[in-house]
Amino acid sequence: MVLFLVLLFFLDQPVVFAGQASLGPAIAQNTQMVVNESSEASEKKKEEFYRHLQSQLKDFDHKIDELKSQGEVLREKARNELLVRLEQLQSQKNELLPKIETATRSSEAAWEDIKVGLDRAVTDLKVALEQAASNFF
Hints:
Number of helices: 4
Structural class: mainly alpha
Radius of gyration: 25 Å
Helix content: over 70%
Strand content: under 5%
């Protein structure tokens, strides 16, 4: 595809086959259609990933609420430790929200790097939450 685009930009003469008119405008139009379709597909991937992250963060909130409820039966010291840890996890999650919003407005080149980082951050939060749960229950 890249080679095709490079050739399109560097051709001096219109492409003409025996008995045919110039194909240059048709090639340019087809190229633009391919670029537009690629851009739309990329935006759909961003939107799907964004929805996936939002779903994971909602699950995260539900698990925190569940652990808080379970924490009510713990002795006071353990309950306080759990609540402190859950507050820390909630703060980490809240720090991700603006980053997710920024990612949805990023360029294609930046998107791939941001996506990896966000995915890793959400995974780290989930692991930390599971560790907190296993430490107290």
